[in-house]
Each structure stands twice: as C-alpha cells, then as structure tokens.
C-alpha cells in the first residue's frame, strides 16, 4: 500500500483550512493545515509534501510571497492557489510565477481533487 | 384684450415682486436689501452732491448776473448826482468869482444873474449875497429875506471856513424840500462875503428815475445820518430817518443782503458820493433777483425727484432679479451637488461591494466546507457521532451571523440619502465605519491605533452622512499608506459646541500644491481609479452638518484630517428645509 498523498493546506481562516483538511482526509489524502505562510514554511521544514494548496490573500506573508519561498526550496513542488471571487487575476499572475493551477473560493472539493490529481500527474511527467 | 391684461399683470408682478410663489428665504432677503441699499447709496449720494453743487453754482451765477448790472447802474447814478451838485456849486462859484461884491450888491444885477441862472440850469429857488457880518445884502427870490442875519447859522460859518457848503435837504418856507449851496469870496478890502442859493430837490428824482426802476425796486438818497434826502417807496418820505443800517465809511459801492424791519429779504446796493456826505441807495427784493433761480431750482428738484424714483425702481427691480438668479443658481448648484453626492455614494458603494464580496466570501467558504463535511460524514456513515456533526453545524450558523453583520453594515450605509439627525456616539460610528476596511487592514497588515476619548459627549448628527465622511477619509488613508503602515484614530471634545475626530496616517503625504486642490471637484491623484469627488463631497457633507475640516500634510511623513462636528445640528435650518425634500 502506497503512502497517501501529502498535501499542505495554507489559509488564514482556520475553520476553513482545518475543515478542508478533514474532508481531504476522509478522501484518503494526508492533509495538514497551516494558518499562515510562516507556519506553512515551518511545516515544510519538518516533512515533505506532494502538493501545496495556498490562499493568495493572507496577512503578513501573502500567498504569492509564500509560493516564491516554496519554489526556492522545491521548484518542482506543485502549488494550487486559492483566490476570492473576482480576483482571478491574482490566480493567473500566480500561474505565471509557477503555480500549477488556481481555484476560486468557495471550493468544489471534487474540482480541487481533480486539480490535485492533474497537478501530480503533470509533475510525474 | 386678455393679452393686454396679462402683459400688464406680468409688468405689475415684476415691479411688485409677487411673481414668486415661494417667499425668499431670509438670507436672500438680507442680500437683496444690502445690495439695494449699497446701490442706492452709490447712486443717490453722487446725484445729490451733483444737484446741490450745481444748484449752489447756479444760484451764485444768477445772483452775480442780476446784481452786477444793478450795482453798475447805482454807481453811475451816484456819480451823476455828484456831478450835478458839483456843477451847481461851480456855477455859483463862477458868479462869485466873475462879479465883485459891489456889483452883486446891486439888486437889479442880482435879479438879472438869478434869471439867467434859472434859465440855464433850472431848479434854483433864490439867490442872495451875505456880507462878512452875516447879513444878507441883496436877495432875489420868492421870500422876504433881505437883511436877514445869518451870522449865527452853522452853514454860514462852515462856508467861511471851507470856502464852499452844500446843506442837507430841509423844508423851505413853502414846505418844499430844498438844498442850500454857498460859496465864499473876498472883496478888495479882504473881507469875506458869501453867495448863497437855494434849490428845490425835484431834480434829484430826475437823476434817480433813469435807473430804470420797476415797481418792485426802490432807490433814494440819504445823508451821513441816514436821513432820507428823497422820497423812498418803501421806507418813507423825505427827511424821515431810514430804518436800514448802512455801511460805515466811504469804501466804494457795496452790496448787502439783509432783512428789513418789515421782514422783507432785500439786496441793498449802497453807492456813497466821493466828495459829499450823501449816498445813493438801491433796494432790490431778493425774490425778484432769485425769481429765475427759483424757477430753475424747481426744475432741478423735479428732475432730481424723478431720477431718484427711477433709480430706486430700477435698483429694486434689478436687485430682485439678481437675487432671484442667485437663488436659482444656488438651487441648481445644490441639486448638482446632491447628484454628485449620489454619484459619489454609488461609487463608494461600488468600492465597498468589492471589499464586501471578498469579506463575505470567507464565511461562505467556511459554510461550504462545513456543509461539505457534514455531507461527507453522512455519506461515509460517520454521522452517528453527534458532537462531530454539531460542530460544523454551529460553525455554519456562526458564519451566517458573520455574513449578516456584513450585509447589515452595507445596507445601513446605502440606505440613507437625506439628512436624518439622531443621537450618536462618534467613537461607535467611527469603529463601525472602520469595519468596512478591517479585512483590508488585516491583509495589508495596517496597524490601526485607537486614541478615543472615553468622555466624549454624544452628538446629534446624521449617522449615514458621518459614515460616508469617515469612510472617504479612511479610504484615502488606506490608499496613502504602504502595507504595514499605521493609522491613528483620535476623538476628543473640542469645545462646548463641538467634538473633533482626527484620522492620521503615516503614508506618502501631500505637497502644498496638492493640498490646495484636494477639495476641488474632479481633482485626483489616483490616476485611473479616482473620481475626484470623494473629498469635495466629504467637505460638502461636513459643511452641511455644520462642521469643518482641517488638513495637515507633509510629503513622506503623512496626512492628518481633522473633522470638527457640532454637538447640535446647525441652527439655520431654513435652507435645509428648502432643499431637504430632494429625493431621487
């Protein structure tokens, strides 16, 4: 039995990110929640993740800034960005900077899982 | 005919100012009154001065024009009178020099000389020769005066001392006014003798009559004591004392304006004789001199009064029209301002909507995830753990509360357009307004510092309008600071009538040039996304609420907006009432 896919979820809304982690957990992912960019980077120091789901708008270190740091460490690690409605521009900007994809909140979990799979497939190729 | 009536009605309304359905508010009435008074002053004062100056000048000219010829006539008549006396005295002197005492002592010769004298000159009444002892030696005339002794008479002594003598007028034996002339000469023995003649004064009237006197004028001769030497039409018969005061001395012809004993206003021309103690006096009633002036003055008065009435009518009509136009312009400007305000409000709402959409998206995402989790639990048959199921339910409810707060805040801002006064706590309104921007502050790590006075009194103001003011200024502060910037909100009681709210940022600040223009409509430094209406509208709202705004700024250091808000609504609510019913 292979190890479940390790996903790091980063969003400043704790209720959102923990619930999402729980739901992904139900679907067989090993999801871990971080509520700030700094916390996310710390968690990455402790273990390896297969993919990061990252909110763009966060206090302190913004999502794009966190992604820059992630790409510095692991250039191949797929990052899926989360943006608010009406902020698709930020998502497109993130893709230019190396994000695999972006999704708008509120999320459709099936779409997220589909994007996760897509990103992981692209990475392995 | 109805058209004529209608036109007349319009004209009458125009001048009576009754075409206004609404009465003019007090400040416009005051403005109209002030303009009218000022215009009346600047037109009537010069007009009055001009009229008075002209009138005085005309009066002076007319007086000079009328009196100068009269003065010349009087001087000429006085000169003629003097020549007349001189001539008569010379004739007498010629006889006394040509004939010796002895020849003249002959009565027949005396008769003959007297006859020739009367024929040549006329007016002589008698002629007599008086010896050195004062006795009349020869006499020819109507009276029995031969051998009359004149040695004690004053005139005889005076004639002997001075060599010649002209008496004042006196009444002769026939009750006729006379004048006596006498000259002295010396006989071979060196004894003095006197030749004396008497003349009636009818000739005097003949000298005065060529002066061209009309019935309203008077002319007469007086002696040095003011006794009339000829009859006066106004002041009595010959030899009576004239009641007028005459000038002292002999300093040429003089003109005096005076009121006589009977209250007549007269002009007196006084022309004294050079060699004799007589003076010719001419009297002109002032009314006759100023008749032309009175007529002119009446005309000037009519022109002045008509001009005055016309000026006042034109001023009242034009100021009424002017103030009406000002009022219309004010109303249009007020409506335009309201429309701008509305536009700006919509712009604010649009700007807020973006923030709200983001803000509301987070609780929605949570609801989405929590609902999804509950579905997962049910689908994976994990819903028997009640606590595990209730936790997301409560979270959903909590997130719904968050959404409700946000929508209520937005609606509270958008709902009110008109001014509605209520009792407010400025601290609370400011905090409430900041709620719109809290998320942005959080994301941009903008540090908000509260420096609120806890003892600040409640104010009576409009919540929605104050929120818009605070939101506009806070939005500017947020735009001015970099991420991680600092905004300090302070409130305090300024004085017994007002409170103050200041919003200070440590942003980019403004140059003096920018500072001068920030309240001008359509001025913006936010190229591309600023409307340039935020601060003008803010200023307008604060002024409407009876407050004021002060701005301090320095490039690179930041900006402080201080808003002063009255504790009570502005007292003069007249204009509010005029335009307060503006509705969209």
Describe it.
The complex is a heterodimer of chains A (125) and B (584). With 125 residues, chain A is of the alpha/beta class. In chain A, 47% of the residues lie in helices and 19% in strands. Chain A contains five helices and five strands; from the N terminus they run βαβαβαβαβα. A five-stranded parallel β-sheet of chain A has the order 2-1-3-4-5, sandwiched between helices. In chain A, strand 1, helix 1 (14-26) and strand 2 (30-34) form a beta-alpha-beta unit. Chain B is of the alpha+beta class. Chain B has two domains: 62-289, Beta-Lactamase (2-Layer Sandwich), CATH 3.30.450.20; 330-579, Heat Shock Protein 90. Helices cover 52% and strands 19% of the residues of chain B. Chain B is built from 15 helices and 17 strands. In chain B, helix 10 (426-434) packs across helix 12 and helix 12 runs antiparallel to helix 14. The chains are: A alpha/beta (125), B alpha+beta (584). The A-B interface holds A 13, 15-16, 19-20, 22-23, 26-27, 57-60, 62, 84-87, 105-107, 109 and B 354, 357-358, 361-362, 364-370, 372-373, 376-377, 380, 382, 392, 395, 399, 442-445.
Please summarize what this structure is.
The complex is a heterodimer of chains A (125) and B (584). By secondary structure, chain A is an alpha/beta fold.
List the helices and strands and how they pair.
The complex is a heterodimer of chains A (125) and B (584).
Chain A: E1 6-10, H1 14-26, E2 30-34, H2 37-46, E3 51-55, H3 63-73, E4 79-83, H4 88-96, E5 101-104, H5 109-124
Parallel strand pairs in A: 1-2, 1-3, 3-4, 4-5
Helix pairs in contact in A: 2-3
Chain B: H1 2-16, H2 26-98, H3 101-104, H4 107-120, E1 124-130, E2 136-140, H5 154-162, E3 164-166, E4 170-171, E5 177-186, E6 192-200, H6 202-208, E7 218-223, E8 254-259, E9 265-272, E10 278-285, H7 286-289, H8 291-379, H9 386-415, E11 421-424, H10 426-434, H11 438-443, E12 447-451, E13 459-462, H12 463-480, E14 486-493, E15 498-505, H13 512-517, H14 534-544, E16 548-554, E17 558-566, H15 574-579
Parallel strand pairs in B: 12-14
Antiparallel strand pairs in B: 1-2, 1-6, 3-5, 4-5, 5-6, 7-10, 8-9, 9-10, 11-13, 14-15, 15-17, 16-17
């Amino acid at each position: 039995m292979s190890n479940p896919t390790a996903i790091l979820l980063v969003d400043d809304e704790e209720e959102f990110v923990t619930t999402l982690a729980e739901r992904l957990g139900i679907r067989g992912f090993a999801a871990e929640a971080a509520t700030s960019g700094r916390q996310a980077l710390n968690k990455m120091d402790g273990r390896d993740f297969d993919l990061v789901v990252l909110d763009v708008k966060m206090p302190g270190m913004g999502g794009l800034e966190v992604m820059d740091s992630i790409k510095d460490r692991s250039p191949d690690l797929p990052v899926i960005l989360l943006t608010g409605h009406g902020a698709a521009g930020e998502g497109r900007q993130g893709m230019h900077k190396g994000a695999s994809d972006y999704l708008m909140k509120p999320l459709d979990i099936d779409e997220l899982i589909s994007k996760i799979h897509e990103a992981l497939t692209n990475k392995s190729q | 005919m109805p058209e004529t009536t209608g036109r007349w009605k319009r004209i009458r309304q125009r001048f009576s100012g009754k075409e206004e359905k609404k009465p003019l508010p007090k400040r416009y009435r005051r403005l109209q009154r002030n303009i009218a008074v000022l215009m009346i002053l600047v037109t009537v004062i010069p007009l009055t001065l001009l009229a008075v100056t002209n009138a005085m000048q005309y009066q002076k000219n007319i007086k000079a024009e009328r009196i100068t010829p009269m003065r010349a006539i009087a001087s000429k008549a006085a000169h003629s009178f003097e020549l007349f006396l001189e001539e008569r005295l010379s004739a007498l002197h010629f006889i006394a020099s040509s004939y010796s005492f002895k020849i003249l002592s002959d009565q027949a010769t005396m008769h003959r000389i007297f006859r020739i004298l009367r024929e040549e000159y006329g007016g002589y009444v008698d002629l007599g020769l008086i010896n050195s002892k004062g006795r009349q030696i020869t006499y020819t005339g109507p009276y029995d005066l031969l051998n009359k002794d004149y040695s004690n008479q004053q005139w005889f002594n005076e004639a002997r001392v001075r060599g010649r003598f002209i008496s004042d007028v006196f009444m002769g034996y026939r009750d006729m006014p006379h004048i006596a002339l006498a000259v002295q000469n010396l006989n071979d023995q060196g004894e003095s003798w006197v030749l004396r003649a008497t003349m009636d004064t009818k000739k005097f009237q003949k000298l005065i009559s060529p002066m061209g006197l009309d019935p309203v004028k008077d002319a007469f001769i007086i002696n040095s004591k003011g006794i009339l030497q000829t009859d006066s039409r106004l002041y009595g018969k010959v030899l009576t004392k004239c009641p007028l005061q005459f000038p002292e001395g002999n300093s040429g012809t003089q003109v005096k304006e005076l009121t006589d004993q009977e209250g007549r206003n007269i002009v007196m021309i006084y022309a004294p004789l050079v060699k004799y103690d007589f003076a010719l006096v001419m009297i002109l009633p002032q009314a006759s001199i100023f008749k032309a002036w009175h007529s002119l003055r009446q005309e000037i008065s009519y022109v002045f009064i008509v001009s005055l009435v016309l000026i006042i009518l034109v001023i009242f009509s034009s100021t009424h029209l002017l103030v009406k136009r000002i009022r219309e312009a004010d109303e249009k400007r007020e409506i335009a301002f309201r429309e701008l305000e509305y536009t700006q409000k919509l712009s604010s709402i649009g700007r807020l909507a973006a923030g709200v959409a983001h803000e509301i998206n987070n609780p929605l995402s949570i609801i989405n995830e929590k609902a999804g989790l509950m579905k997962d639990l049910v689908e994976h048959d994990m819903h028997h753990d009640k606590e595990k199921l209730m936790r997301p339910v409560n979270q959903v409810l909590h997130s719904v509360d968050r959404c409700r707060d946000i929508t209520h805040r937005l609606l509270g801002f958008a709902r009110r357009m008109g001014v509605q006064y209520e009792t407010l706590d400025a601290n609370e309104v400011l905090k409430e307004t900041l709620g719109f921007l809290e998320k942005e502050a959080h994301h941009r790590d903008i540090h908000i510092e509260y420096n609120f006075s806890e003892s600040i009194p409640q104010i009576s103001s409009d919540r929605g309008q104050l929120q818009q003011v605070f939101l506009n200024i806070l939005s500017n502060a947020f735009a001015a600071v970099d991420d991680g910037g600092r905004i300090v909100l302070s409130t305090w009681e300024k004085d017994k009538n007002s409170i103050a709210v200041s919003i200070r940022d440590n942003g980019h600040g403004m140059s003096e040039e920018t500072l001068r223009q920030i309240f001008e409509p359509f001025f913006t430094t936010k190229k591309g996304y600023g409307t340039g209406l935020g601060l003008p509208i803010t200023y307008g709202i604060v002024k409407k609420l009876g407050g004021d705004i002060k701005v301090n700024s320095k490039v690179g250091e930041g900006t402080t907006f201080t808003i002063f808000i009255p504790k009570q609504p502005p007292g003069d609510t007249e204009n509010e009432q005029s335009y307060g019913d503006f509705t969209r």
